[in-house]
């Protein structure tokens, strides 16, 4: 079960990182912190697949030390997936650490909108997302900048009501929530499998111990009886 969920998490987070055009948005907004949680979950998914295979091998060989090591890796992967999910959500949801970063970038673009790079970035963001300013059209008025055409709806001519901070956060949240859900499912699987793995190890230990005791008894039974010499 953990191998399947781990493979799914690995594939989905790789897709987020390698999605065409998505890296361009991250570069424009300068929010590379978003990738921290993605990288952690990519590593967690890869390690789950590797350690699950090694755990199956140790169970087949009935190697008690390897099973104890596998239980330890389950604890480590549980902590890793929880940390990765927390960091990913902290940089991709509403009222999270990502919003001040996006707001800072958008306001800087508005202040320097006379420069070609800032003007092109604002046009791309506001036209593609359908937003205006950092928190709304008032940002241009406060900074005494003209309201650009891309801030207006092409049909009605009215300025977009929502700011780009919220719109971009919702855009990131839609991608991150699925990765976080898969990571939490994987963490729950670790919680369920850890007691099972421990029970399996104890069972192997009991069987091995019983076999050793029986072997010792057979040796004692076959040993020649000592006779008292007078």
Would you give an account of this structure?
The chain is mainly α and 230 residues long. The longest helix has 59 residues. About 7% of the residues have low confidence.
> Could you give the count of β-strands?
0
Q: Structural class of the helix and strand makeup?
A: mainly alpha
The CATH architecture category of the largest domain equals Orthogonal Bundle
CATH superfamily of the largest domain: Tetraspanin
Shape: rod-shaped
Q: Given this structure, which CATH class of the largest domain is correct?
A: Mainly Alpha
Cα end-to-end separation:
70 Å
Number of helices: 8
Strand content: under 5%
Element-by-element helix/strand order: HHHHHHHH
What level of helicity do the residues show?
Answer: over 70%
Low-confidence segments, ≥5 residues, pLDDT <50?
A: 206-221
Radius of gyration (CA) equals 29 Å
User: What is the mean pLDDT?
Assistant: 83
- Total individual domains: 2
Which sheet architecture does the biggest sheet show? none
| Oligomeric description of these chains | single chain
Which fold name corresponds to the CATH topology of the largest domain? Answer: Cd81 Antigen, Extracellular Domain, Chain: A
């Amino acid at each position: 079960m953990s191998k399947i969920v781990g493979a799914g998490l690995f594939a989905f987070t790789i897709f987020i990182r390698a999605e065409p055009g998505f890296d361009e948005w991250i570069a424009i907004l300068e929010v590379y912190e978003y990738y921290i949680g993605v990288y952690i979950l990519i590593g967690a998914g890869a390690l789950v697949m590797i350690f699950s295979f090694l755990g199956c091998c140790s169970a087949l060989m009935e190697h008690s030390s390897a099973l104890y090591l596998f239980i330890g890796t389950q604890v480590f992967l549980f902590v890793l997936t929880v940390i990765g999910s927390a960091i990913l959500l902290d940089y991709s949801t509403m009222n999270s650490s990502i919003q001040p970063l996006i707001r800072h970038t958008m306001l800087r673009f508005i202040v320097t909108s006379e420069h070609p790079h800032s003007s092109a970035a604002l046009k791309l963001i506001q036209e593609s997302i359908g937003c205006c300013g950092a928190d709304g059209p008032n940002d241009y008025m406060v900074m005494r900048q003209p309201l650009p055409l891309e801030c207006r709806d092409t049909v009605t001519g009215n300025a977009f009501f929502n700011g780009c901070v919220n719109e971009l956060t919702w855009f990131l949240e839609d991608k991150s929530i699925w990765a976080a859900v898969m990571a939490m499912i994987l963490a729950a699987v670790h919680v369920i499998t850890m007691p099972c793995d421990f029970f399996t190890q104890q069972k192997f230990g009991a069987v091995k111990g019983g076999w050793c005791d029986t072997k010792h008894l057979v040796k004692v039974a076959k040993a020649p009886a000592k006779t008292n010499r007078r």
